[in-house]
Structure formats: structure tokens, C-alpha cells
Amino acid sequence: MNLVENRTTLRLTYCALGIGLLIALFPIALLVLNSLKPAAQIVQNPLALPEVLRWDNFTRAWADARFGATMLNSAILTATTIVLVCSTASLTAYVLARRKVKSWKIITFYLLGTTTAPIQLFLFPLYFGFARLGLINNTFAVALIYTAVYSPFAVMLLRTYFLAVPRELEEAAIMDGASHWQVFSKVMLPIVSPGILTVALIIGLYSWNEFLIATTFLQGAERQTAVVAFFLLSGQYTSDWGEIMAAALIVTLPVVILFVLLQRRFIEGMAGGAVKG
Questions:
Q1: 85 CB contacts (<8 Å, ≥6 apart)?
Q2: Which DSSP symbol is given to 50?
Q3: Measured between alpha carbons, how far is 256 from 259 in angstroms, rounded to an integer?
Q4: pLDDT digit string, tens, across residues 25-72
Q5: Which helix (H) or strand (E) is 168 found in, with range?
Q6: Within a 10 A sphere around the Cβ of 70, how many other Cβ atoms?
């Protein structure tokens, strides 16, 4: 009886996973399908197979959105943000995990508040302040804003990794004559590297797809990111949906490839972060 019940449960689980997979992959399949169609056929029936493969959608999208330059801008901005967030958040998380902080409840409330607060609350003061300082169209300045926005989440996640590391390792390293910086850089960082990789992937995804801050502070054409360039492809009265679908696929492809290559590390990192809070 138990064997029959287990098989039934297993089949139901596979069915549920299959349905979830179809729901998750359907938008991607529809995007690929429509990126190879002319605009007229997309408007007529977006679910139909393409009558003629329009590979020129990709070449026109690449040229019109200047993806050669805008994707490089996105890559520089994303990489800078990842370096800043991972370096500052790991140092902060290590201190909060290993030192007794009397005001920890206040810090927790602050981190949760800044994680959930919408960026629209700070957008106008930030813009006027950055304009007075001459930091509009400055990629590093935008990376600093991203760092301030994403660091609270990174600190709270990385703190759980440092808490899971036994204190005996740290104490043994100190007894061997290692300084606090050596303990952090030589002992702790290699152990929590899955967590840092997880943070890097999440922050990289957020930074690559971010639109509001990028379009507000990077107004020059030479500083535009790929997401902003993709948005500008849509005309006020008419839009070439085949070109837009091809551009959307080009923008999302680097993130999808990176996640597929690092998905095992990402899942291990997320699971490891839940060990101890």
C-alpha cells in the first residue's frame, strides 16, 4: 500500500514540476518564436509558427539599439556594482556576525527598511545632489547608487554565511599569529565564497535589468545601458515587434547563459545561506 502511495505521490510531483516548467518556459519560447517573425505576422497571430525566418530582426536590433556600445556600458556598470557590493557587504557582514553589536535590532530594522523602501523616495534628492556635483552621466556614480540600494540585502545574506562558520577556525588562526585582516581574507572569505558568488549573481541580475536609475542618471547616448536602449526601440505610434522581440532576446541572453553556467553554485549558495540566521 505504501509503495502504491509513494508512486502516486511521485507521479503527482513530476506532473506538478512539468506544469511549472511549461509555465516558466512558455514566455521564453514565445519570445524566441516571435523574434523570427515579421511584425505583421506577430500582430496577426503571435502563437503561430513563422512563415519565413526573419534573421534580419537581430541585425537591425543590434544596429538600432547600438548593442555593441550599450551592452558594454551595462557590463561595466554591472561589474563595478558587483565589486563594490561584494567588497563592502562582506566586510560589514563579517563584523556584524563576529562582533557583539548592542544596537543589532536597530541595525536589522534599518537594513530591512532600506531593502523594502522604493527607490522613488530618494530619486529626486539624489538627482539634484548628483547634478550639483556634476555626476550626471557618470557610470561610477550610478554604481554607487546601486551599491547603496543593494548592499542591505547583501549584508543580511552574507551575515548568515559568516554565522555558519565555526568560531574555532577563527580562533585557531589568531593563535597561529594571523591578524584580523588575514583571518578575514585567508580563512573566512574562501569558506563563504559560495555566498559571495550568490550575491554577485543576484546583484548582477538586478544591475543589468535596472531601468529607472539608469535612465535618470545616464542621459547621454554614449552612456546608455542596454535596457534603456531596448526601451527606446519602441516608437510612439508604430513599433516593429519583430525587431523588439529580437532585441529583448539579445538583452536577456547574457543573463540566461551566465545563470545556466553557474546555476549549481547559485543553488548551493542559496541553500547554504539558510543554514543559520
A1: 146, 147, 150, 151, 154, 199, 200, 203
A2: P
A3: 5
A4: 888 888 889 888 888 888 888 888 888 888 888 999 999 889 999 999
A5: helix 167-175
A6: 22
Type and span of the H or E element at 8: helix 2-35
137: left (phi over 0), alpha (psi -120 to 50) or beta: left
CA distances from 73 to 62, 115, 204, 245 (A): 15, 26, 13, 21
Length of the chain, in residues: 277
Nearest to 123 by CA among 207, 221, 204, 212: 212
Q: In this structure, which amino acid lies at residue 87?
A: S
DSSP string, 92-134: HHHHHHHS--TTHHHHHHHHHHHHHS-THHHHHHHHHHHHHTT
Domains and CATH numbers, the chain: 66-232 (1.10.3720.10)
pLDDT tens column, 129-181: 999 998 899 999 999 999 999 999 899 889 888 888 888 888 888 888 878 88
Alpha-carbon gap, residue 82 to 254, rounded angstroms: 16
Residue 80: helix, strand or coil by DSSP? Answer: helix
C-alpha cell at 91: 566586510
